[in-house]
Amino acid sequence: MSEGVETVAGVSGDAPPAVALKAITKVFGLVRANDAVDLNVPQGTIHGIIGENGAGKSTLVSILSGHYRADEGEITLFGEPVKLNTSADAIAQGIGMVHQHFMLVPNFTVLENLMLGLAQTKLLASSREMVRDKLNHLIAAYGLEVDADAVVERLPVGFQQRVEIIKALIGGGRILILDEPTGVLTPDETDQMFESLRILKAQGVTVILITHKLREIMAITDNVSVMRHGKMVAHRKTAETSREELAELMVGRAVEAVRNDATVSAGEVVMDVRGVSLRDEAGTLRLKDVSLELRAGEIVGIAGVAGNGQSELLAVLSAMRAPNQGEIRVGGRTISAKTPADPRDMRHLGVAHVPEDRHREGLVLPFHMSENAVLGYLRHARSGRRWFIKKGRMEDRCADLMGAFDVRPPDPRLRANNFSGGNQQKLVMAREHGAEPKVLLVGQPTRGVDIGAIEFIHRQLLALRDRGCAILVVSVELDEIMALSDRIIAMNAGRIVGEVPGKGADRQEVGLMMAGVGKGAITSERAAS
Amino acid sequence: MKRAPLPRWVDLALIPFLNLVMALAVAGVVVALVGENPIRAMKVMIDGAFVYPGSLGYTLYYTTNFIFTGLAVAVAFQARLFNIGGEGQAAMGGLGAALICLGLDPYIPGILVIPIAIAAAAFFGAAWAFLPGFLQATRGSHVVITTIMFNFIAAGILVTLLTGPLIEPGQSTPQTRDIAPDATLPKIHEIARALGFDMASSPLNISIIVAVLACVGVWLLIWRTPLGYRMRTLGQSEPAAVYSGVAVKRTIVVVMCISGGLAGLMAINDVMGAQEKLLINFTAGYGFTGIAVALMGRSHPVGIVLASLLFGALYQGGAELSFEFSTIDRDMVLVIQGLIILFSGALAYMLETPLGRLFQPRRATAGA
Amino acid sequence: MLDGSFSAIWLDAMQIGSSTLRLATPLILCAMAGLFSERAGVVDIGLEGKLLMGAFAAAAVASLSGSPWAGLIAAIGAGMAMALLHGFATITHRGDQIVSGVAINILAAGFTIVLGIALFSQGGQSPPLAREERFGPIDLPFAEAWASVPYLGPFYETFLSGHNLLVYVALLAVPISAFVLFATAFGLRIRAVGEAPEAVDSAGYSVAWLRYRAVIIAGVLCGVAGAYLSIAHGGGFVRDMSAGKGYIALAALIFGKWQPVPTLFACLLFGALESSAARLSNVEIPFIGEIPIDVILIAPYVLTVVLLAGFFGRATPPRALSVPYVKDR
């Protein structure tokens, strides 16, 4: 069917590499996103590219998929030099791309989505059967089972991703590029996808996997390349390297992660969540009977794959959404469906919130930093007469916060979108810390933040905990949860599926709970051993 | 990806100026195509707007209209709501003012009728914007479409009333009777003459003072009050507004009502000032001109005053065109208005990129 | 006797239907224009302006050349020119689609009058057009012969036959639009680009070019609608002759939930309201009295608001509608 299969025999020592990049350079403004990048991907292998946020991985694959044009450098595919000026060029060369955010038309069927990508006749009727045939061949060859007539938006995420992979291969793709493919998958779905990748590899397809997760690199790749600050800093055979070495290569120095080693004696319960359930607008149950307690002076980490109810939990606890059932007791007040609160009330009750998405929620990017410094805390900006807000007061407040959290540059009159991710997050942290909260809700504290800022933010969270604040941390980075938490609670499909003490927690056990398998309680003997 | 912002003077002065130049240049080409001399047309318009006796009064009279409708659009813009309904809201404002004036002027002194009528104009305008705002907030109906629809509905209501219950008895022109003189807004030339200055007659009346006060009020509202802060937060990022505790639905409704109230106030200039009665179609497209004014004035009260002055001059100067030329008349102003909306609104980013490159500071991003 | 009065009512109904068809024609053409544009993700409140420009160009060129066909071509050209302007602002420069539409409507209002005065010196009107400068009524075959056939005769002779060419073009535009959008690869991509442009981009097609083509088709259809107003239905151009029809077409498109056939019915409904408004004016209706003509004329707007409020089931616009496509995140 596709040329991809015919090349199976060619996987020998002297076959030209499927992809060879030489001195690829791409400059955006003053930033060298890719700086003389070299890469060799042998045919029929799975090749990992790893690096921190902003290391240039996405730019590199965008060049390879024809989305961006490289300023300099050469691309050679299967020994032949090519020019990839558009997505169409890349597709014609057999490069299939699976993006981090799906490139599917949600209200089209699987078949319609596939037809969109295929060169075809002018009328749909005649190409429909042709595409269906191709799909069936693909299902037979690679085991990528999917219902051709299902509407994409009604498929589970794992299947949507499968459609993306089929899309990438159905036109004769020989090289499959996956950009951070596991972020939205459950561990189970991830395993299934890796299984599919192994079959594809066995059939001669070359796979390039972009990720920042070391575990995935170790689990499935044959070779790995490490990027840092736009440069390719190392190439390794996966079998001959270690996670520690790769981590060091990624960051550029030995990583000394902050760890929560103190044994704390948690104080009284400051937030009590009882049987909370939440439905979304479509009526789907997003939170099911969630109960937990937050005590003064402890950090509770919520572990879970993205989309398992953690975001909704934050939304309910911060009163951005009212629960459908259950109640939250905090500061002498009871919040429920009948007695809802709004985020302003919560701040008055001493509940501060660092939201998951600082660009959309935590900051107003076009606003000055001084205005952002009082977002949600307008009382810090009001003048003596309650009707008006004062610029000077906002700027003073902002300068204080910037000083306390080392936000650079410390200029309240700059707009938020002129700051780096780390400095933006520091300002949000500073603002919420500055309210001296009794409870701090934190979503993805270090997403898109550079290593230096991660350390700083972690230390500040521990310090706030030591001052007696109850902190709830939601993060998709299990390592972060493991490092910070006094207690770890795992969520799956909107439920709390288990709890273990943070100290000595076993990563595999937490992973199993996240997958909805394990139940808490089994912890003690393992912690002892 | 992160582009440094343009210097303030470029953003606030140079870009609007260049947009105006481009609009006038294209309009000039049209004038030339039609076979007239664009420079001469320009001179006629400037003379007509500022030089001829009484012309300044007319110019400022139009300016008053545009300040109100421009502020109305700008306030809504701050919350990223596009109120195209200024026309209908002004029409309803006129209805409100007229109903109060006609209903009360036989019974209570004009000095008392006037403030009630002004409040009624604002109230009726706000009420006409309330439903689009409410539907946007609670049902997600797009405010652009609903306000367009409400313009037509308002026009229909006004026609129905002015050809029926409100028509001056014994007349066939669709308009009301005259408002009692003491319940109308004093004209500026009357005040000037009373004070002993000589001044040519014009429809300019004390509405312009209300307009200037409205500018100050809007400035305070947007940049100095918690409500203004919340409006702007909502306008820039709805998720951030929700996060920070802004009552989104209520704010949308309130903003639309403020916007509609400002548009409604436009009516006092015409109904209580210039015409001293309610006429059909008295809004004459001023509501739409408000869009051009707000875009050109960058939704800032100072910019709106300047842009209103420009459009006031264009309208008044444009009226002179038909006296001087056989082939062009004041509808040329509509062309200029459309071009200004095009250049300073729809093509707003066209200049930003090249100017951004020109004025890009050496250091691209702060911190990082 | 019963039969006789019934057939009289039938004939009456056919006459109302016929006038409905004539009044709905510009709405249908404009709504199909909006369908293409908005299905591709470009809001088109500039229908009104394109319609007006088309009407002016048609009348001006028909009057100067003496040929309705030249007028039609000019109208299409004018509609396309405005559409390209809209595309340039919103697709190339990613400007606000609503602002651009407002600009086009105001520009058209000004341009048509300025050019009209310059060309004809009649206060913005075109000279009245002679019969051979317009599209005249077409009698379908055997219309007269079959007129006496009960029921079917009036249906054929009164309702279907005797319209000008552009009425039939409008009626054909609906199935053709539906076919193009739902049965061709081009239509699939147009719909995809209005839902998820990034998917189309990653599949190797140009989002901008697809949207340009959709917007140009909209311009062509609006041009035809304009020609209908001034050189087919009407006998010349008068200022502001579009009179809100572009907005009503937009309302019909929303009312029809961005689907061709329901949109057609919405146009026919609004056309029927307009045609009945003329008949109902000054007619006493029991218990209600005389309905002012203006109340009937604003009915489409009220209906649209009620629909938008979600009382007739929610209309879901194309997902990427009004969102400019930015390639680099």
What is this structure's SSE topology?
The complex is a heterotrimer of chains A (529), B (368) and C (329).
Chain A: H1 3-6, E1 19-28, E2 31-41, E3 46-51, H2 57-64, E4 72-77, E5 80-82, H3 87-92, E6 95-98, H4 110-117, H5 124-142, H6 157-170, E7 175-179, H7 187-202, E8 206-211, H8 214-220, E9 223-228, E10 231-237, H9 243-251, E11 269-279, E12 285-295, E13 299-303, H10 310-317, E14 325-330, E15 333-336, H11 343-348, E16 351-354, H12 358-362, H13 369-372, H14 391-404, H15 421-434, E17 439-443, H16 451-466, E18 470-475, H17 478-484, E19 487-492, E20 495-501, H18 507-514, H19 523-528
Parallel strand pairs in A: 3-8, 3-9, 6-7, 7-8, 13-18, 13-19, 16-17, 17-18
Antiparallel strand pairs in A: 1-2, 1-4, 4-5, 9-10, 11-12, 11-14, 14-15, 19-20
Helix pairs in contact in A: 4-5, 4-6, 14-15, 15-16
Chain B: H1 8-34, H2 38-51, H3 55-78, H4 86-104, H5 110-139, H6 143-163, H7 188-194, H8 207-224, H9 226-236, H10 238-244, H11 248-274, H12 286-296, H13 301-324, H14 331-346, H15 348-359
Chain C: H1 2-39, H2 47-65, H3 68-92, H4 97-120, H5 143-146, H6 152-160, H7 165-183, H8 185-195, H9 197-202, H10 207-233, H11 245-255, H12 260-280, E1 284-285, E2 289-290, H13 293-297, H14 299-308
Antiparallel strand pairs in C: 1-2
Helix pairs in contact in C: 1-6, 1-7, 1-10, 1-11, 1-12, 2-3, 2-4, 2-10, 2-11, 3-4, 3-10, 7-8, 7-10, 8-10, 11-12, 11-14
